[in-house]
Design goal:
By secondary structure, the chain is α+β, with helices and mostly antiparallel strands. It has 8 helices and 6 strands; from the N terminus they run ααααββααβαβαββ. The protein is globular. The two termini are about 25 Å apart.
Amino acid sequence: MPPPDVPTATADEKPAVFATLTLAFSTDPATRWTWPDPRTYLEAFPHFAMAFGGAAFEKGSALRVGSAGAALWLPPGTHPDEAALNDLMMRTADAASAVDGPQLMQQMATHHPKEPHWYLPLLGVDPAHQNKGAGGALLRHVTDQCDRDGVLAYLESSNPRNIPLYERHGFEIVGRAQSGSSPVITPMLRKPRRR
């Protein structure tokens, strides 16, 4: 089977991309710890995705595989909207995650590379389309570029089930973040491979 096509998602496709990501993260340990109430999750997650990785649309690094999967990659020098993230968490997060969340975020920040790197805030595949190659295609699209350019890639896995996929694509575990009642977040770094 040929690898899936990975076009850049346009600004007009934001609602579709956010819908795909909302489905993909509906059973994610960290997001459901943050928003255990289903209605609150469905309302908050698209705003979270926009604040966390929405800059990818402006940078041309929001990617999709049809309606099956999407990834928001932030190129070197591009960052999440911290103010919008903090505001959203203050307004919508569950009480337990509001207490432990800031400490968890501080731990995560200690693992973030200082060198120029591509950052992957969000990659998700609709559960109806998982295990068909979409996740790997969304990773390869940027990791191939990292290899060509000699640039690091970095992510934090919020779901232990996804770690083997990331490891197959060259990411290595560089730490662990966990606070109070939070699930474990696994920071992962990928060094460029020589061609």
